[in-house]
Amino acid sequence: MPDIKQITVALSRTSLELCTLPLQVNWYCPRCNAPRGEVMQTQIPIGRQSLEVNFWVNPCGHHDSYRAMVSEAMANGLNRRLQQVLNTYLNKGLVEDSYIG
Q1: Which of 4, 7, 15, 51 has its CA 20 to 30 A from that of 39?
Q2: Residues 44, 70, 24, 39: what is their CA dihedral angle, to the nearest 10 degrees?
Q3: pLDDT in tens, 8-46
Q4: Distance CA 65, CA 80 (A)
């Protein structure tokens, strides 16, 4: 059975602010199939507030960007409503068509 994790990533917003999105992903490196690193939390400061997101360092040395994680989540079959959520965000102008990472 694959190791699946839920992570929270940041998406870029049109006004240079950020919003977050929870994703379910298989917890192995898509480049070499090694396990991904331990999920940790960090704060991204936005003015006087901050957003809590996840980050990790892969022991294999391959880097995962948030943009790549969103693409992976859209293709892995674990996030049935993800495309609908992203389209809603895009249509409302809450996120741009590109993501940070």
Answers
A1: 15
A2: -40
A3: 998 765 555 567 889 999 999 999 999 999 999 999 887
A4: 21
